[in-house]
Model the fold of this input.
Amino acid sequence: MSEYQYIRFFNELGIEDVPLVGGKNASLGEMYRKLSAEGVRIPNGFAITAQAYTHMLDEAGAWEALHHALDDLDPDDVADLARRGKEAREIIYGAGLPKDLAAEILSAYRVLQQEYGDSLSLAVRSSATAEDLPTASFAGQQDTYLNIHGDVSLLDACRRDFASLFTDRAIHYRVDQGFDHFKVALSIGVMKMVRSDLAAAGVLFSLDTESGFRDAVFITASYGLGENVVQGAVDPDEFYVHKPTFAAGHRTVLRRSLGSKAIKMVYVEGETRQTTRNIPTPQHDRERYCLSDDDVLQLADYALAIEKHYGHPMDIEWAKDGLDGQLYIVQARPETVASQRQTSVLETHVLDGKGQVLVTGRSVGEKIAAGRAHIISDLAHLAEFKPGEVLVADTTTPDWEPVMKTASAIVTNRGGRTCHAAIIARELGIPAVVGTGEATSTIASGDAVTVSCAEGDTGRIYAGEIPFHVERVELGNLPRPATAVMINLGNPELAFKTSFLPNDGIGLARMEFIISEYIKAHPLALLHSDKVSDPEERRSIQRLLRGYANGEAFFIQRLSEGIGTIAAAFWPKPVVVRMSDFKSNEYASLLGGTAFEPVESNPMLGFRGASRYAHPAYAEGFRLECLAMKRVREDMGLSNVILMLPFVRRLAEADDVLAKMAEYGLKRGDKGLQIYAMCEIPNNIILIDQFAQRFDGFSIGSNDLTQLTLGVDRDSEIVAFDYDERDDGVKEMIRLAVQGCRRNRIHSGLCGQAPSDYPEMAEYLVELGIDSISLNPDSVLASTQHILEVEKRLGRSKSQ
Done:
């Protein structure tokens, strides 16, 4: 039994105490008691109970005045809401703290000083008794006071925190959620302040917030106090960790993205109320990640322990103390949006046109919306906003929520995907693009715009209203066909969402997209930038390499994280990764590429695929590709990756490339490594018995096979009429390839465009008994249903 009437220390609290101390404090107490022994570090503290709140108002006789201020409130009248909210806050602050309550608060403060020393600074945080419920997140509705020192400041912060139960945003939110103002009370958490002003802080989720993918931990981080990340004042660093391989002992970061982190919130000493301020982040800090990989992995450990304890996905705030170097969890609550999403229906928004891109940022959600842009510079102009408009702002705060709920989309200059604008957009189910940097100066109020979050992690704001449509697919319990139905994919940003489609893995993961979008430079230009003659290209390459030891480290990390993301999304299903298949003209278009590529009259039949890999002109680049794939399979633990060589013209060429791969640590058969080849050259089929001795499988590339069987350059428009993958000669080549694979007991697959475009080709492949068909995502469901019908006609099923 506690010696206090209105105070409970964290070691006295559990999750069952939500009615007494609110969700935040109950969760902190639960974790302090149950997870500290497992290594999850929670700063000690105490809760001022909800009974203290009612005791304070009872003693002051303030209930009648509060009813007068709040009864008959019209929450949609912004001016009336602001007036009544201000009146309610003044009533509560003016009530003061009863003497017995103030004495208990100061007594508990002394206990914390004995543990942490007299120089202890405090965080004073609200915890509403209806807060952080699975069906409603009260995050950010009340106030937090940081870096509190001394008795007077602590008691004043408590009075202000009690009053913040009636901020405008909190009043409006409770009305929306159906909570009675007088049945919600406020508890206050008083805890050791983690000195993240000297280090970093942020938010982590135990799932991917955009797709709802459960096998990833998503972490955001920025320098200074965490308020900037939560409020959306900064564009933070982002990190992903893959849970299954991490739990199996592969301690690597799956993927990372560098944020601008332009400002950081620090303490201001010597002031009684305004205890923090934002200062510019030094340029050299902006250009590096604010967390080490070890820090990221420690946070992933915390996330897994907390999620396991609670049994569902969690939304967690963390902070790193710059004095002791330790990482602390300062809040954990149930994740209330992505985890509640219906998984039986896959909804995809698709643009039906193109337009001028005005600005880009980080996408929140996966939807598209259009409307007239309305730039709001501050609270005073919120009343001018009209429902259905696109809200454009520097950043948003909880005070903006009454207007945000009427917007068709939200666009901000600042913020990351765990900021206030992002959280509210997800709750409202509208698209948001955050961290654009310049939306308020690039977009004009009154102009029609289209906000697209349907193209991956990068959100785009287009000029004008571009038509789009929504595809809704009932996933249901579609049975799996005997023929493996796999997916063609190159963009890691779409991997988590695409993984929800019924599938048997990835039949073709293309390196080219990752190299062109995330690496941008020619591999040899990264290794030998001195050979790049264009000064601007050299400067661009040097900018890419900031924060990396050298060009080799940059290429290996970026490529391995891109491929790793795709492999993680479909783990443990097979993911067939094709080594780079750029043509020389495509390689030349990369930064610095012209210095290392020949000029060919027909690149389609030139220096491409396997012919490059062992050739002195590209051997260094192939080495980097191999080292990246070795990192994916061994360091990241994604052993579901199967490697595939494109355009293998001759047997001797195959032998040379396989020898090079073994030299770089990718020996076929070692550690379960399978190596496939593309079957796209007639010679592959003519000599299939010999090729089959060298590879574990063939994936028929119907595009190139058609080109070379019919003698048609598929890049030439004038002979495009002769290019037809359904030609009898092409079909015969495919039949011989499938037959040859079966004869040699190796895998046969097809990853070309034909079965996506032509149902009759999919039917033909099933009739041949091909092992797998790899399709574009948009045709997976229809093709799967068609394949099931064909197999039923043939009397074939997966169990056979």
In short: Residues 477-794 form a domain with the TIM Barrel fold (CATH 3.20.20.60). The chain has four domains: 7-193, 197-333, 345-473, 477-794. The radius of gyration is 30 Å. The first strand starts at residue 7 and ends at 9.
